[in-house]
């Protein structure tokens, strides 16, 4: 949730303007494997060896060959070498990043179709599907993967692909092959029991009918199969292809992304006013104002206290970071006291202050500290929301990894929710830490009631901010 009503920016202490530093992350390209050289065969090597000038025949010294004969021999030797190299390499370079001596480890499935080849990737015929029927789509023949998207499976409830246990990238390929407007086909995608695409509309995501679109997801397998499930909200699911690529490394950090720490605060020496500013003076969407008196550092912890004042007014507390950057990784170690109507919220808010977008990477429902949610807000009230059970009265590390087109949410280093969407913010954002007092409830938030203590505290042990290496 924002620290101010939608569309408003909370006032800073002194109303001063701050110089803000913006960092923009860029991904590092992977190095392609060099072509493997091929040694010439023994016969070709012999043909390039010059004749021994000291050799004789029984009749005496051999006549010295003319320069034209020597030239002909050299040309023949070069030709033999070229032929040997071409034959030895199969006539073409291996695809970038693929070891020419190792079988392609990727698994590719042409959903709804037969075996096809698209670029350097060979797709097997449709297999491992659960339910649905085959259909077709009209895709531009200029695409090298046109055959993949021309055949589709509609109405499948899922795929179960046998693989060794490990970490994988799963590329989901699809399109809208029938409807000519958004909202007519909407479904959810669950990967290994985790909802990774919510309210997915292929027409809306791709921008039209018969427009291919891909979404690459990451998961760790521990049961011997990649399980992909579809749950249709409108019409039926649709899938054109599936590519499974083994990954190195663990789940706790985005595959292929290296992080560099740019900021750390354990609040050991108090609140650094050069980095943090206190919320105050502006009522929030919860119906209560923020108080700067509710922010303090106690025993090395940043403490945000929501309390009922002597005047009977409930006031929340919060701080905002002055560090602005595009993309990165934020981790907050925190716990909260129980108290109906008092939230614990950690979020990314746009630097320019205009809402949306917003990324809430830890937000509870102000009830019993027994759940946590993550939400990405888009324009026109559209959002993608995830929830899970957790005891947030205990210490936990709450993390968001924000990269182009994707946000990944982790608790204690374990991935628990992912949002992959072209509308994921791409502008500079800053961190907000806040506790709100909700006087009236909503469909999600519980209100303050007679059981709520007069003071409810949120404790923050540390904050770590990272950016993508090389940015």
UniProtKB/TrEMBL annotation:
Presence of the UniProt keyword Membrane in the record: yes
Protein name per its UniProtKB record: Glycosyl hydrolase family 16
Top-level taxonomic group: Bacteria
Gene Ontology molecular-function annotations: hydrolase activity, hydrolyzing O-glycosyl compounds
Entries under Gene3D superfamilies matching the protein: 2.60.120.200, Galactose-binding lectin (2.60.120.430)
Matches recorded under InterPro entries: Beta-glucanase-like (IPR000757), ConA-like_dom_sf (IPR013320), Galactose-bd-like_sf (IPR008979), Glycosyl_Hydrlase_16 (IPR050546), Malectin_dom (IPR021720)
Annotated GH16 domain residues: 232-471
Upper lineage: Bacteria, Bacillati, Actinomycetota, Actinomycetes, Kineosporiales
Annotated spans, Disordered: 1-63, 124-144
Swiss-Prot/TrEMBL keywords: Hydrolase, Membrane, Transmembrane, Transmembrane helix
Biological process terms in GO annotation: carbohydrate metabolic process
């Amino acid at each position: 949730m924002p620290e101010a009503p939608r569309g408003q920016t909370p006032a800073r202490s002194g109303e001063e303007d701050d110089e803000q530093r913006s960092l923009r992350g860029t991904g590092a390209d992977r190095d392609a494997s060099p072509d493997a050289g091929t040694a010439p065969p023994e016969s070709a090597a012999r043909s390039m060896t010059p004749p021994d000038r000291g050799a004789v025949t029984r009749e005496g010294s051999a006549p010295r060959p003319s320069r034209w004969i020597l030239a002909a021999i050299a040309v023949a030797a070069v030709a033999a070498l070229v032929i040997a190299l071409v034959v030895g390499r199969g006539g073409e370079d291996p695809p970038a990043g693929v070891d020419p001596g190792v079988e392609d480890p990727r698994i590719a499935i042409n959903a709804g179709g037969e075996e096809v080849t698209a670029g350097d990737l060979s797709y097997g015929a449709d297999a491992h599907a659960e339910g649905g029927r085959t259909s077709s789509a009209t895709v531009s023949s200029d695409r090298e993967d046109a055959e993949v998207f021309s055949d589709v499976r509609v109405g499948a409830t899922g795929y179960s692909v046998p693989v060794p246990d490990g970490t994988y990238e799963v590329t989901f390929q699809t399109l809208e092959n029938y409807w000519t407007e958004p909202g007519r086909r909407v479904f959810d995608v669950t990967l290994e029991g985790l909802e990774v695409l919510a309210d997915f509309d292929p027409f809306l995501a791709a921008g039209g009918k018969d427009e291919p679109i891909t979404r690459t997801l990451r998961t760790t397998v521990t049961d011997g199969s990649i399980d992909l499930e579809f749950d249709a909200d409108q019409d039926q699911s649709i899938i054109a292809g599936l590519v499974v690529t083994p990954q190195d490394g663990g789940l706790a950090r985005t595959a292929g992304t290296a992080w560099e720490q740019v900021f750390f605060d354990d609040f050991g020496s108090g609140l650094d006013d050069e980095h943090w500013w206190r919320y105050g003076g502006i009522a929030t969407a919860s119906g209560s104002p923020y108080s700067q008196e509710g922010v303090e550092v106690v025993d090395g912890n940043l403490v945000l206290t929501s309390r009922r004042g002597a005047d009977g007014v409930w006031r929340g507390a919060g701080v905002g970071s002055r560090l602005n950057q595009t993309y990165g990784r934020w981790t907050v170690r925190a716990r909260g006291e129980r108290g109906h109507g008092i939230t614990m919220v950690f979020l990314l808010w746009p630097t320019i202050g205009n809402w949306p977008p917003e990324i809430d990477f830890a937000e509870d429902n102000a009830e019993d500290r027994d759940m946590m949610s993550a939400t990405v807000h888009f324009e026109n009230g559209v959002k993608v929301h995830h929830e899970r059970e957790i005891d947030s009265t205990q210490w936990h590390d709450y993390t968001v990894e924000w990269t182009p087109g994707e946000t990944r949410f982790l608790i204690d280093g374990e991935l628990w929710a992912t949002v992959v969407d072209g509308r994921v913010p791409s502008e500079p954002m800053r961190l907000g830490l806040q506790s709100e007092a909700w006087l009236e409830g909503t469909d999600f938030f519980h209100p303050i009631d007679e059981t709520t203590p007069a003071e409810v505290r949120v404790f923050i042990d540390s904050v770590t901010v990272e950016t993508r290496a090389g940015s």
